[in-house]
Specification:
Helices cover 34% and strands 22% of the residues. It has 207 residues and is α/β, with parallel strands linked by helices. It has one domain: 3-Layer(aba) Sandwich (Rossmann fold). Helix 5 links the parallel strand 4 and strand 5. It is globular, with a radius of gyration of 17 Å.
């Protein structure tokens, strides 16, 4: 039997695992999910496993290197039938996907192994978040892992926080998890969920 305390400890040690945990509270087999920053394919692989053989995953990255690495990882796990790898900026995801997505994951920062040459940028990140917001189903979730140790990262973090703070409370719930006692530019994990109903009309919030 899995030790729930050990599992929780791992979740809180690693921002990526925390984001994964949050997504699993919403995403189910057969759903559609998006990895907005494919990178080395870790989030894409995770989403493929959660949605199962009947689900779909769209993975975006503007860097061919990232798409190639993700493709290799998916091929190794024999999960290619459920994933669409798209070599385009995440700010264009609305061109490829219909509304009704249950989860969108962002992992902001630089592409590991690229020598910090390829970083996500505030303008395209906010445009992508707007796209994700429009595609998200009621009860769906957007997770954003923000790293702050590279040039331009603080500006990107502030832009994401401002974007999230402006979302109407009647339709959206936002949580922001930080690691204040971590040294060396600690990351943060943000989760944005779309309510299933409208509290202004006396309806209950999303479960």
């Amino acid at each position: 039997m899995m030790d729930i305390f050990d599992t929780s400890a791992e979740i809180f040690k690693n921002p990526i695992k925390l984001a994964h945990h949050l997504v699993t509270t919403v995403l189910r087999p057969g759903d559609t999910a998006v990895d907005a920053t494919a990178g080395n394919g870790h989030d894409t692989l995770f989403l493929c496993r959660v949605v199962g053989g009947e689900g779909s995953v769209y993975a975006f990255d503007s860097q061919p290197l990232a798409i190639g690495r993700t493709a290799d990882r998916i091929k190794e796990e024999h999960l290619g039938t459920r994933v669409y790898l798209i070599n385009d900026g995440h700010e264009n995801m609305g061109k490829y996907i219909e509304p009704g997505v249950r989860a969108v994951m962002f992992n902001l920062g630089y592409l590991p192994g690229s020598g910090h040459r390829f970083n996500t940028q505030p303008a395209s990140t906010i445009a992508a978040l707007d796209q994700a917001k429009g595609l998200l189903a009621a009860g769906g979730i957007i997770t954003v892992v923000v790293y702050t140790g590279h040039p331009g990262a603080v500006e990107e973090k502030e832009a994401v926080e401002s974007w999230a703070a402006a979302l109407p409370q009647e339709e959206w719930t936002v949580i922001n998890c930080s690691f204040p006692n971590w040294r060396n530019h600690p990351p943060q994990v943000m989760a944005i969920t779309r309510r299933k109903s409208n509290p202004r009309r006396g309806e209950p919030d999303a479960a």
